[in-house]
Task: structure prediction
Amino acid sequence: MRCQDCELLLAGDEDALAEDHLRDCAECRALQKELRANALALNSFRDEELPSSRITERRAVLPWLAAAAAAVLLVLIVHQTSRQRPIHPQQASVPMTVAAKLPPKPALKLPVRRKPKPASHVAPGGQLLLVKMLTPDPDVVVYWLVD
Amino acid sequence: MFPRERDGGIVFEELVAAHEGMVLRTAYRLLNRLEDAQDAAQEVFLRLFRNLGRIEGDPKAWLYRVTVNVCNDHHRKRMQVSELDQHRADPAPDPEHAITLDERKRLLMNGLATLGERERTCVVLRDIEGLSTAETAAILGVEEGTVRSHISVARVKLAKYVRSRQ
Result:
């Protein structure tokens, strides 16, 4: 019998068929010993504790991650929206700024300016008074023309 | 055919609870890395959920089969990286050194990764999970003789692998 044939018999749990060869072959006896030790070790894997609950934990983490991602997205959207909101006053301020530099025209007067004002609010010389209002947003400045 | 629900209870939850350990353990032996095994186990149960109404016979055999398929897909994807890891993991052989059970188990886990797909699967199902040759053959969809052949070759390879690293 060749060692190659003996190896397969030993590995197939048919040691009895290889007895004669084993008696004369130290190499195959060593392999037989190794196979038996491996069989015990492989069997012992079955009794090993694995953190099986971690599959459940991993699944439980996923909804939290999704919720956290949704919250971050919501905050970003709200922040973006709040930054975009002051654009309208800023756009409105452009003609008002231009109007301040031009000679006063009745067409440019806003309804608010038609309200009767106390004399103390009228600029000296009867000219328009330009009020510059700063806002928390550095990109937004409100100009207000006062009679 | 396996019902999706039974008496108002969710069969899926029962199957997960009953077989979660088995699926994770098998996946871990096939992949040799817990994180990969957890991913594979999730994939297995996702497939179970999708196919619950179509599973015929013993769901345990179905789960074994799907676990083996999912793990083999995982293994193929990271084969090259794994080979590099093994070269780093095993120290040089020491002829005077008699290995402990823990060392042998570690070498066997690394040795499993060097086996062919079918050989590795046969060893995990037959020698680690303790399934019979017939059960292993049914799961893999092959003849019992094929399983016996794979097992014999794999055991010899593992024995030589361990010996060469003692």
